[in-house]
Amino acid sequence: MNEVTAKVKAVELVNKDVYQVTLEMESFSFIAGQYVMIQLPTGEQVPYSIGSAPGELPLLTLYILVSDPDSLAHKVIEHLSQSSEVRLKAPGGDCHLEKETLNLSSEHILLIAGGTGFAQVKSLFSDLVARRFQGKISFYWGVRTQQDTFADAWLESAKQHENVSVNLVVNDDSDEWTGRTGWLYEAILADHPDLTNSLAFISGSVGMVYGTLDQLEIKGLKENNCFSDVFAYAPRPEKPQL
After folding, report:
1. Hey, what CATH topology would domain 108-233 get?
2. DSSP alpha helices (H): ranges in the chain?
3. What is the pLDDT along the chain (242 residues), one digit of tens a residue?
4. How does 177-201 read in b/e, with b if 16+ C-beta sit within 10 Å?
5. What phi, psi does 174 have (nearest 5°)?
6. What CA dihedral angle connects 41, 148, 20 and 57, to 10 degrees?
7. Is the N or the C terminus of the chain less surrounded, counting Cβ atoms within 10 Å?
8. Could you tell me if 185 and 140 are in contact, meaning their C-beta atoms sit under 8 angstroms apart?
């Protein structure tokens, strides 16, 4: 990863606790699916998936969840809000569209996100569309409540592309939400009972990633056809031998 400087163009609250950050980065390149490390004046470094596609450069988008005023994320937003420039290490991560094991001639790619894992799969989705990927793209985003959603305009525009399905799944049922509810993997398996010929990118917490993978493997998804940053920093525990 290289040390680079970005201009801070905007820091906007897009729901009750998620900020959309827009940076401007000249002479920078990355692959959809990669991340940046924001460097704080304290020396702390915080990783965030890039939420925009390479074709949107020199602008670059991040989505930052701030659920605790004592968190590093809160420090990041304070720093960005008070600064015209920010130091980054970038790009990082090998869960991207140039992996040597990834076959972009596949007939179906699943893009699966929990919470602000949305950023990474949004970048992947946008770049696949820009590359005119010929297979089917199935985008699934799971959130706890309807109030946890954001990027409504982008979601609506994403639905307009051919060979694409965009699915928002809310975990907690309520009278206000009339869309899909339940666990994310339940929606995926209801739509795709056979995943033998599918690839999947999964972005979210460690538990969400491995829990989803366990369920999708039952329906034929091969582990070597699944990609996640979680695999690098939290290797999957060995399954018990029966």
Report:
1. Rossmann fold (3.40.50)
2. 72-81, 118-130, 152-158, 184-191, 206-218, 230-233
3. 899 999 999 999 999 999 999 999 999 999 999 999 999 999 999 999 999 999 999 999 999 999 898 899 999 999 999 999 999 999 999 889 887 667 777 889 999 999 999 999 999 999 999 999 989 999 999 999 999 999 999 999 999 998 999 999 999 877 778 889 999 999 999 999 999 999 999 999 999 999 999 999 999 999 889 999 999 888 876 665 54
4. eeebeeebbebbbeebeebeebbbb
5. -155, 160
6. 120
7. C
8. no
State the Cα–Cα distance between residues 76 and 86, nearest whole angstrom.
10
- Determine the Cα–Cα distance for residues 196 and 109; give it in Å rounded to an integer: 11
- What is the rounded CA–CA span in Å between residue 230 and residue 126? 22
Domains in the chain: boundaries? 2-92, 108-233
Residue 23 buriedness (CB in 10 A; 0-12 / 13-18 / 19+): buried
State the Cα–Cα distance between residues 63 and 42, nearest whole angstrom: 22
Return all residues near 58 (Cβ < 8 A) that are at least 6 apart: 24, 25, 26, 28
Check if the beta carbon of residue 19 is closer than 8 Å to that of residue 58: no
Single-letter amino acid, residue 136: K
| Neighbour count for residue 109 (Cβ, 10 Å) | 24
